[in-house]
Amino acid sequence: MAPVCWACRLSLLWLLFWLSALFLNCYSLLTYDRQALLDIRNSVASSFTNSYTLDVDCSFNKTDESFTSAVPGHIRRWPLSIPRRKRRRKRGNRGGYIVKLKAHLRAGFLSDHSHESLYGGSATWRPRDVAYRWLRHVLPVHPSPVFRSGLLRIGLGSRRRGVTHRNLRTLERASSSPVIIPPPKMALLNARSLVNKTFLLNDFYLAHNLDFMFITESWIKVGDLTPFSELIPADCTFFNSPRPSGRGGGIVTILKNALSARCRLVPGTAFSSFEAQFLHLDWNGPVCLVVIYRPPHSTKDFIQHFTELIGNIAANYDRFLLVGDFNIHVCCPSNPLSHEFLNIINAFNLSQWISDSTHILGHTLDLVLSYGFDVTDVVLSDFLISDHKPILFTLSLPELSYSSSTTVSLSRFYSPQFSTNFNLCFAECGSQLNLDQPLSDLDADQHLSLLNSAWLKAANATAPLKPHKQKTKSALWQNSDTRLLRQTCRKAERKWKQDRLHISLQMFRDSLTSYQTAAKSAKAAYFSNLIETNHSKPKVLFSIIQSVTNPSVNTLSVASDALCENFLRYFSDKITNLRLGVCPTLTLAISPIMSPASAFLDAFEPINLQELKEVIDNLKPSFCPSDIIHPKFFKLVIDSIGPGLLSLVNKCLQTGSVPADLKVATVTPLLKKPSLDPTVLKNFRPISVLPFISKVLEKIVLNQLQHFMTSNSIYEVFQSGFKSAHSTESALLRVLNDIYLSTDSGDSVVLILLDLSAAFDTIDHSLLLSRLESWVGLKANALKWFHSYLSDRTFLVKLGNFSSSPAPLTCGLPQGSILAPSLFSLYMLPLGSILRKHGVSFHFYADDTQIYLPVKKNNSTAISSLLQCLEEVKLWLAQNFLFLNEDKTEVIVFGPNENSQCKSPELESLSAFRSSRVQNLGIIFDQHLKFDRHIASVIGSSFYQLRLLSKIKNFLTPKTLEMAVHAFVTSRLDYCNSLYCGISKCQIARLQLVQNAAARLLLKCRKHEHITPILRSLHWLPISQRIDFKILLFIYKSLHNKAPVYLSELLHSYTPSRSLRSCDQALLVVPRARLKRRGERAFAVAGPRLWNTLPLEIRLAPSLSIFKSLLKTFLFSLVY
């Protein structure tokens, strides 16, 4: 009992000691001597006074009588306090030390005035006032009222919850940070058809975090890219090398977008014994990657071809990798083919890294060969994608380190209440900037700057710029079922790897098949719902279909300021070299037939607010990086910003000036074709955009300029580019009409197609201003406005967040501008007078020039006149800085009939450019005018589109599928189909096959089902009637001034010499023709003949829509 009694007594003594310390206000101190504690106090006080200069009463400088008060608060602790068990509660983000610190400071600084400091004075110490040992006082212990109000202002004394945003400051990001790229992880597998394994391979690529995946036996046909929309992950791209002909074969490489700038597809020698894909990888020097697939029975010449392949690669690369399915049993050295193959490997000192069997039958068929580096982490996966095992490996290459700018993209996020909030904020900003006062004393640049500052202030208040990080698009079609099935696949795979039982293997295979089926169904349902939601938006609909049928490929290198500068120099040097190559120093003078202006335009008329709103509403809302507000939302707030913008526009029109900020173009490089090499700058074309305000101003000027030129007949009649009611089909219809009539009379016709290189970019500004003054009649402020518009223009190249420095635009018309097409047509006005002077027929479509001339038998003067005309045209083009590309100049001669045996005219110097087939505005002309080659091209492209649509028809509703068929197939059949008038029935039947196939696809009919009821149910006109429909539509438009003048002048109303019943029948004169395959195919002959066969009510239709409806009903009744 003694030990127990002593224990009880000790506990009682400790309890009494603790109570005495609590009620007698005594303190327990750490075992430090007094002088050490005073030194600590002084050091803390001095550090505080040196760091802060606040006018407060600092208690550190006072000397208290009490010994305990001299001890700093961060040292004093009560060691005998009973630790209470803390109640666990969820604090979220507010349960950390910052919350405790605020509570601690609030308790010390914001206490009632009746109490003294927590760590001094006569206030009774409370056990709950805990002073953490890790907290150090950096603020005064006795704050003054001024300092206390400052604490409340900065948020330390605030009792409101949440974040005080005014206390936050944006931290500057590092300009660059080193990026480490580890050695690439790769996989090689034989797929034996990608079509039914796309989702499985996609999951395999992501699960192993691969950089490259090489796939052999893809079985993808040429031009079929639909499976890649399911196969390629969101942040990856691919290289596809299908077998050129036949079935099977094919090689695909999948790689990350981050490596696409370092890896590119390069052309290589084609071998008959195997397929190969050649890749060039930049990894601390060039590395060649070759993927090979050798068919099993292709043994002839393989050893020779493979030796030649290695020899070519070794001569150009110090490091290379060869992977693929060789179908050679290297595990059996006694095999003759294997023995020779292994000897070649040893002869070239290649390293072979596969030692285990890669086929389910126990043979080693898939190989990884390297030279100049090692291959590590070789693993044969048990993933059952085919009868070949996937091979995982890593190249033993050094890590790459480079500096990458960590720029953040800033974007405006517009809320649904943006327009309301912007209007209120802009009204306040306008009153502060005095926008409601007259601004007549400001020039256009100052006026625009004032408006921009007000717009920017209001936009920042209502839609501030926020960091926007591009996120990798996840598979939106994934749902809970597909995720569960993917987990089931993982479990089945682990179970099979553990027990290696056949039943486990079968379960694993069944789970893979179930996941592939479910994923395909889920994606089909997702796209079907997406398409159905956007079925009324053709642009969105077509982009969705295009993303499925032709998935995009990353074609641009990693963006940087240096790359933007390279593009800037290339685009500038290209134009400079073209201008230097046109020989502007020619001294031979040209005296074209002058057309002095009969009317003059001195100034542009100011507009009102309603006209400004109409112009803005009709403009396409294309965004430019320099726009403060996106044009889509700019239209929503036009009521508030319209008066200020109207004042600026009228000032520009009246003073003849254009602000400098509106003359800066932003250029984005765009690859011309996906198959081109993205590392070559010449494969890109510049796409330029201008500020939205600039387009508004240009549209207003264009409307007034077009009205003036149309009223005074200044436009070139035979210019069909960029003019309303004009098209490529109307231009070709007139050219072919003249050719048919000339050949019908027994003459031959020489057609010359001239090609101008970068015509819009080489125009001389001084010559253009001279043309506007002398040919158009612009004077005073109108001419001054164009002078300001063309002078001091600049452009810069922008790629994402990177941009180049601005460069001057000393020549050419700004791309993306509304005025550029019309200005180019005016620049080309003198060329028409030169051609008329020589009696040569011509037609322009923008910068595409067609020159044609009838040539009679044994008439050499016509050819001499044509050659003389061409020399003068070349001279004029050179003097006007337009570069004629003679390599693309083509000449074709049309005979009087299809089977003409007459001697063709001697073309002299033009004989080198003569061809039997030319492409003119998208139509292939042949010298017999049969259009067989063009129709074959249309049929091939149409069936290709049908095959793509057949692969996604499960995604589309019947209505949406019909829209897609019309967009991708019918549009090809109807393009310039009026030119098919008079072609053979055989060619018509070939085109009809395409329409029949489209109808069967749409209604899911069988191949041999009769087509007439199908077409009738769809209410489709057959091909022959569609041709007649198009010709009659041109006739109606020509008679009602809705077609080009050069077509209207070919038609003449029938007026009998005496009073007959046909006087008021709206008939047309049908010219006589000699040949059915020539003259009767001319628009001037075939059109009136078809017109006169129509019922009177159709010919007298009051409107175009009624005419089209009646005409289709009439033709439909004739067929069905």
From TrEMBL:
Gene3D superfamilies on file: Endonuclease/exonuclease/phosphatase
Entry keyword Nucleotidyltransferase: yes
Keyword set includes RNA-binding: no
Location of the Reverse transcriptase domain: 651-925
Single GO MF annotation: RNA-directed DNA polymerase activity
Top-level taxon in the UniProt lineage: Eukaryota
Keyword line: Nucleotidyltransferase, RNA-directed DNA polymerase, Transferase
Protein name: RNA-directed DNA polymerase from mobile element jockey
Source organism of this protein record: Anabarilius grahami (Kanglang fish)
